Amino acid sequence: TKQTITALKETDKKVDAFLTLNEEKALEMAKAIDEKGIDPANLLAGIPVAVKDNIMTKDLRTTAASKILENFVPVYDATVMEHIYAHDMVPIGKTNMDEFAMGGSTENSAFKTTKNPWNLTKVPGGSSGGSAAAVSAGIVPIAFGSDTGGSIRQPASFTGIVGMKPTYGRVSRWGLIAFGSSLDEIGPMTRSVKDNATVLAAIAGFDEHDGTTVNKKVPDFTANIAKGVKGLKIGLPKEYLGEGVQPEVKAAILAAADKFRELGATVEEVSLPHSKYGVAAYYIISSSEASSNLQRFDGIRYGVRATDVKNLNDVYVRSRTEGFGPEVKRRIMLGMYSLSAGYYDAYFKKAAQVRTLMKQDFANVFADYDLIMGPVAPTTAYGIGEDVSDPLTMYAGDVLSVPVNMAGLPGLSLPAGFAAGLPIGMQLIGKAFDEQTIYQAGYAFE
Ligand code: GLN
């Protein structure tokens, strides 16, 4: 832990992955673990980890990269933190992200932009860009992110690491600062598939604090990991290699399909016809949920309160005006609009109907196939500053990642090649609660 923190301070001068360090407490924890002795059955004991800054950490500043929470210190831990402590992992700090997890590049952070360790002029992806960069730069072997519409998988793809968005209901969201509650999921970001499977098993499971967690036994995700892919049926959606996908990305995915065939799997073209409506429907649903979830930041209960105010209404308006960044405001307005009485049927309800059709698309494919493969993002990492002023271009980059959240399915991002020195990510999507088959295929491919 000491070495990790020393190295972190050097590396992070270039990468800017961390918002808050947990130096003193981490060293204390590591010492206590040493004194207690390491349980040989616990592969995670004593390992330094990094945690995205929208996961609440008791007595450790948690900002969601927003000015409105700049000085917020939670009074309780997220359930995921309790699992982290129970497994003797050592959190060394909180990582940078897009404000309230809204974005895909960490450029929406109120505090700083994280750099891609492969090329410091490029974004690391987002919103879990700090966690991705911390693993990719070799600072920690394990980090935690959250994924509402790709925020674990896309930064994993941009930085050449492995990131899992588990099935909705697999991991407790208690203590995760809510963005889109029907889409959000916490998951592990690691260097290898097997590490990822080990970490997921440690944080998954039913939680009485989160009514959407499913009371199912958590399998040993590493049990079948070396079984190979012989006999597996993998679908490759034609919509995932269409227009807008960078040629090198397409080539890497086609090469991956060939590799799976060589390893004994069947890979065939399939169709997810409603994918093309995914981005539009996702931005309506996620923004609607966000507009409701973010009402609690009123300048009274948490974080920063505007000073020099005239009355109560002024406290609300000024705190929110000064505390939220432009992207967060944009989403709140979009969400409020699509939920308002006169527009509900045209927007929110329509988006919810599209969501059902997207789920049905997946169900149709999974009736015949074990897995779906494709790219994570249409491109490799782009330049810092390149897209930030154009929200619609940013949103379009989520086309291949949001369907998984809309359907509540598990999706893994893993490295599948390089273009001009930048990593390309492949996505493996599984049936609900079948992370095991995803890991099995990912491990065979790696
Ligand atoms: N880029 C997407 C968005 O901005 C996804 C964010 C996420 O998964 N948290 O909404």
Automatic annotation (TrEMBL):
Full protein name: Glutamyl-tRNA(Gln) amidotransferase subunit A
Root EC class: ligase
Gene, per the UniProt record: gatA
EC number: 6.3.5.7
Gene Ontology biological process terms from the UniProt entry: translation
Active site: 52 (charge relay system), 127 (charge relay system), 151 (acyl-ester intermediate)
MF term (GO), any: glutaminyl-tRNA synthase (glutamine-hydrolyzing) activity
Family to which the UniProt record says this protein belongs: Belongs to the amidase family. GatA subfamily.
Any one of the GO CC terms: glutamyl-tRNA(Gln) amidotransferase complex
InterPro entries reported for this sequence: Amidase, Amidase_CS, Amidase_dom, AS_sf, GatA
Function: Allows the formation of correctly charged Gln-tRNA(Gln) through the transamidation of misacylated Glu-tRNA(Gln) in organisms which lack glutaminyl-tRNA synthetase. The reaction takes place in the presence of glutamine and ATP through an activated gamma-phospho-Glu-tRNA(Gln).
Keywords: ATP-binding, Ligase, Nucleotide-binding, Protein biosynthesis, Transferase
Glycoprotein as UniProt keyword: no
Reactions performed catalytically: L-glutamyl-tRNA(Gln) + L-glutamine + ATP + H2O = L-glutaminyl-tRNA(Gln) + L-glutamate + ADP + phosphate + H(+)
Assembly with partners or alone: Heterotrimer of A, B and C subunits.
Upper taxonomic lineage: Bacteria, Bacillati, Bacillota, Bacilli, Lactobacillales
